[in-house]
Amino acid sequence: MTQINRRTLLAGAAATGALAATAAFAQQDVLETKPDLTGKSILITGCSTGFGRLAAEHFARMGAKVFATMRNTPRPEADELMVIALHDNLDINVVQLDVTQQNEIDAAVAYAEKESGGAIDVLINNAGISFGGPIEIQDMEATQLTFDTNVFGPHRMARAVLPAMRKAKSGLIINVSSQLGRVIAPSYGQYSPTKFALEAMSEGMAYELVPHGIDVTVIEPGGYPTMIWSNANKNSLELLDRADEKHTSGYPALIEPLGKRTGGGSTDPMDVPKAMAEVIAMAPGTRPLRRPVHPGGKPQIAINELTAKVQVGWLGNSGYGPWVKAVH
User: Fold this and answer.
1) How far is CA 313 from each of CA 200, 201, 249, 310, rounded to the nearest angstrom?
2) Domains of the chain, each with CATH number or no CATH
3) Catalytic hit among 111, 191, 207, 224
4) Which of 34, 112, 148, 318 is spaced 20 to 30 Å from 244 by Cα?
């Protein structure tokens, strides 16, 4: 496992060059009122770009001890983040972690718990992947990778951190889902099915962890202009290259846009880390099960409200009632 912290980067001869290359990042922080996360230890997956990258810096600027994990370190994104941490004296450790690799998960969580002196306070399952196109053209390679990353990855991460969290009788797990985990659009491959599964897994865990003092919150972003679009375009084109015509021939209108998708418009991806920070700063036991995030429409709200009502109506008077009511 590779860990990069302020001490290790200072020892590297490349630090000076990296600082010059990333000086612009250090100038971007804008003074604003922020929740106080002082003393919180937070482990985030998928920190090379997007919400994870923004969240790592944002939380550290609010006083948190951040374990920013990403695959395939060393890599330029890791160096850039650590140079910002050095320049602005932020408590950020970059740790190698691929959520599909159990050995990397075990090593990263053990490192974070050792550095934190016990259980980490917050796990944020942010790493994700997407392939576009109709379900029929999704071969098993794409399907397995999508589920392995978007569902089994968060499951592996939760299993790794929960023993220590349960022992501490405290903790928070934030799972980054999507609007498309509750409302389903065609031609997004297995993305919606995996996020739908993540939503269900998160809700089940939220009930089960009530007696242990551990909260679970699902963040449901709408469209934002992050790297997920360009990465998904690349994945989709690779999928099409190996797809059989007998599967693709039925969907010309759905296949034509693949590789060209963009999303989010002028929305600000910082909305998501800010929403996460607000949830983290809330008192244990008061955090919402689901938090939609987007400046525009949030069609999943009606679904969230209805399912909460159904869950309480169905299980509220059962032996599970206190747990269900505590979550809803």
Assistant:
1) 18, 20, 46, 5
2) 3-12+33-327 (3.40.50.720)
3) 191
4) 148
Question: In this predicted structure, what is the pLDDT of residue 261?
Answer: 86
- Read off the pLDDT of each residue in 218-240 and give the average, rounded to a whole number: 93
Give me the helices (H) in the chain, please.
6-10, 15-21, 23-26, 50-61, 76-88, 102-116, 140-147, 153-168, 191-208, 228-242, 245-248, 252-255, 271-281, 300-315, 321-327
CB 96 within 8 A of CB 67: no
Q: Which residue has the tokens 């790493």?
A: 127
* DSSP 8-state class, residue 1: -
The DSSP call for residue 99 is T
User: What pLDDT, on the 0 to 100 scale, is given for residue 228?
Assistant: 87
320 is catalytic: no
| DSSP state for residue 52 in the 8-state scheme | H
pTM given for the model = 0.90
Which ranges in 282-328 belong to alpha helices (H)? 300-315, 321-327
Arithmetic mean of pLDDT, 89-102:
97
Q: In a 3-state reduction of DSSP, which class is residue 150?
A: helix
Structure token pair of residue 220: 């449901």
Q: How is residue 283 annotated by DSSP?
A: P
